[in-house]
Design brief:
- By secondary structure, the protein is mainly alpha-helical.
Length: 330
């Protein structure tokens, strides 16, 4: 256990700034979802994604030769994984690629107040978007939506026969990605304090750690380091066949309301991500102490890792159920 924890800490020290689970986490979620669909439905989703306006550049040209020349199921599963990470990969690059990026769609910063004084001073005055319904005129071009609004827009447009195939493919990639992001606790909330974080800590991005870039990146990195296709695939298979994980996933798949997923993540953010250890350390700095990197305990890491794993599995099974609903309506 100590050796495993040491390896985890070495990785987390070097993890990059937050993306919303690691790319590995999103790939695993996609592979779990892949196994919830029949072979026919897997093909239907993959064919829909091939109508993506950047399929050639961001999918076909990125596919490893060994997978491209392999069997159809492997190619389709690779496309699932690539769809799940696409909204993160378009954050940088040429303008024709970044034009698709929607940074605000990845999260919702529901406030968690550090103390009663912060609540009394700042509640109702924060410049944050916590609306749940998308604007009536929302489109794929609407930049200022939070994750719940974006997910609901995607569901609405994917259910419409009027949605063009290219738009449908783009919306599918966002559905793949945002179902995962909404299960990451620190995509649901932000810690608010009077002095340090009067507009919120950006879901833990502003809390620097010795074990990682920041608190948000720590949680993003819990699923593991960067994985190539087959490693993530094997993890997805494990979560789909192991009775413990299958039971958790199937139970989770019975609950498909975004508001419930959000409430689950917010509860974990309050009780586990921003636990007493984190709040005590931030409280000292808020009271005038030196602003420094936090060093989290082994207890925190041993609690956070399994919690993140459960959320990842739940996201995979729920995504699979949502995709089945989408293809059944085509």
């Amino acid at each position: 256990m100590r050796a495993s924890l040491t390896s985890l800490l070495i990785f987390l020290v070097t993890v990059s700034p937050a993306l919303g689970w690691s790319l590995s986490g999103h790939k695993i979620i996609a592979s779990i979802a892949f196994r919830q669909l029949s072979r026919v439905d897997q093909g239907r989703v993959a064919e829909a994604l091939k109508r993506h306006p950047r399929f050639s550049e961001d999918f076909a040209e990125q596919m490893p030769e060994g997978i491209r020349d392999g069997d159809e199921a492997a190619r389709n599963e690779w496309v699932f994984q690539q769809a799940a990470i696409w909204p993160d990969t378009i954050r940088s690059g040429p303008v024709e690629k970044t034009a698709f990026s929607r940074p605000e769609w990845h999260y919702i910063n529901q406030p968690i107040f550090l103390n009663d004084a912060a609540r009394a001073s700042l509640e109702g005055k924060l410049p944050i978007n916590v609306e749940k319904a998308p604007p009536a005129d929302a489109t794929l071009e609407t930049m200022h939506m939070n994750i719940v609004q974006a997910l609901r827009l995607a569901k609405q447009r994917l259910a419409s026969k009027d949605t063009s195939p290219p738009d449908r493919a783009v919306l599918l990639t966002w559905m793949f990605h945002l179902v995962g992001d909404l299960h990451q606790p620190l995509h649901s909330s932000a810690l608010v304090s009077q002095r340090l974080f009067p507009e919120g800590d950006r879901g833990g991005n502003s809390i620097k750690l010795k074990q990682s870039y920041n608190l948000h990146a720590l949680w993003d990195g819990f699923p593991g380091e960067a994985m190539e296709f087959r490693v993530a695939r094997y993890r997805g298979i494990e979560y789909a066949v192991d009775p413990k994980w299958r039971e958790l996933g199937k139970s989770a798949a019975e609950v498909l309301q975004e508001s419930t997923w959000l409430a689950e993540s917010e509860k974990i953010a309050r009780t586990t991500a921003y636990d007493r250890e984190v709040l005590a350390a931030v409280g000292k700095m808020e009271a005038g102490g030196a602003v420094e990197e936090l060093e989290l305990s082994e207890r925190y890491l041993k609690t956070g890792g399994p919690t993140a794993e459960e959320r990842m599995v739940m996201a995979g099974y729920r995504l699979g159920t949502v995709l089945k609903t989408i293809v059944s309506g085509q």
